[in-house]
Amino acid sequence: MAKTVDNYVERTSARLLHSLSRSGGSIPLHRIQFSETIIQYLLDKKRVQVQNTGCGFLLEIAEDF
Fold first, then answer.
1. CA-to-CA distance for 23 and 26, rounded, in angstroms?
2. Is 36 a residue whose pLDDT tops 90?
């Protein structure tokens, strides 16, 4: 069962990264329609980062990724 969940998280996080790259590398955090689990997984892997713009938060692809 755990392996199935891991595959789901991997595939879904890859879709989110693809969406980020198609949108110029960042998306306002409130517009993302992926679960917090997927976002946290990418944050833990240091593939994305959250930036505070003063008017909201952006989820963006990490520079070193």
1. 6
2. yes
